[in-house]
Amino acid sequence: MSNDDLLIRGAMSTNDTPRHGARDAVYAEAREQIAAFRFDAAVAEVFADMIARSVPGYALTLQLIAVATRRFAQPGSRCYDLGCSLGASTLAIRQNAPAGCRVIGIDNSADMVERCRAIVATDTSPVPVEIRCEDVCETALGDASLVTLNFTLQFIPPAGRDALLARIAAGMRPGGCLVLSEKLAFDDPAEQELLQALHHDFKQLQGYSALEVAQKRAAIENVLIPETLATHRRRLLAAGFRRVTLGLQCLNFASLLAER
Ligand code: GEK
């Protein structure tokens, strides 16, 4: 590897993200058949590394959540992290929420929840936090000032997305905010192709092989269903959010701030 390679790797690395667990090699070996992607024990073990090396700008989404928490979380209210995985966003909220808030992280993968609880237990911030193993489409939501869906909505079947967003809006206080981060699709085929190719290049720059990228892509194809920015904006406004602002976009990944 040349010095230039090292410099590029350093600049592109997301090693300011808190890391727990092993390096992701889930798709490193050639497989005869690729089963649909699942958030199982093997994925939970390497998830911090997987998401940091797979989602361009992931570390910045955590900082966006931190500043949104400082601005929007209201004393005495609840903050929900929906699809909390290992709790990276949960902790970004907890460490920046005002006194009197309660933070609730929710994930329906028992393997994620078990690890998340252990990681969260090592954090000493005073704001109370609870990690629940539940489906975000069924969980009770209320009196919320800050809600995050950090790359979770894309895994909810599209037919259930309107109802979930409407329930979140109904469970929020006026003046609160939802941070929605998603992989995006694009109507323009050339834009879609370019950003998808750059995303795959980004993953290889992060150390994934072409085989790993191809096998993961096959596994996730019908599991992660991206939508366009316009679709997200329309759905958020229809759900009852009064203003939708693009907070961050890095290649085909974006974070929206939806104010209640
Ligand atoms: C982060 N937000 O690090 N109910 C509950 N959880 C679900 C559901 C559901 N119906 N569907 C999927 N999940 C995190 C990263 S990862 C994003 C979120 C990714 C959970 C699933 O188990 C997984 O832990 C999480 O949503 C999505 O900021 O892998 O690209």
Explained architecture:
It is a single chain. With 260 residues, this protein is α/β, with parallel strands linked by helices. It has one domain: Rossmann fold (3-Layer(aba) Sandwich). Helices cover 41% and strands 19% of the residues. The protein is built from 9 helices and 7 strands; from the N terminus they run αααβαβαββαβαααββ. A 7-stranded mixed sheet has the order 3-2-1-4-5-7-6, sandwiched between helices. Helix 4 (88-94) links the parallel strand 1 (78-82) and strand 2. The termini are far apart. The site of ligand GEK has 20 residues, from helix 4 and strand 2.
Name the bound molecules.
ligand GEK
Q: What fraction of the residues are assigned to beta strands by DSSP?
A: 15-25%
Task: Give the overall silhouette.
Answer: globular
CATH class: Alpha Beta
What's the CATH topology name?
Answer: Rossmann fold
Strand order of the largest sheet: 3-2-1-4-5-7-6
The total domain count is 1
Pairing-aware structural class of the strands and helices?
alpha/beta
Overall residue-averaged pLDDT value: 93
* Poorly predicted sequence stretches spanning 5 or more consecutive residues: 1-17
Q: What fraction, in percent, of the residue positions are helical?
A: 40-55%
Distance between the termini: 49 Å
Largest sheet report: 7 strands, mixed
Q: Figure out the total of helices.
A: 9
* Strand elements, count: 7
CATH superfamily: Vaccinia Virus protein VP39
